[in-house]
Amino acid sequence: MSAKKSKSAPASVGQRPNFTTPEEELEYLRAENAYLKKLHALIQEKQLQTRKTKRG
């Protein structure tokens, strides 16, 4: 039987999970960074479309 690598329990809002290795923290931070970049792009796109509709 192979042992599964246990993942950190989901963190409460506003808190980061405790990491057991630097690699886990790096993976978490990379995922968080990718999420924030996508969110920022979506917000910019929505603002751009709002400006276009206001101009007519």
Automatic annotation (TrEMBL):
Annotated segments matching region Disordered: 1-22
- This chain belongs to the protein called Transposase
Species of provenance? Enterobacter agglomerans
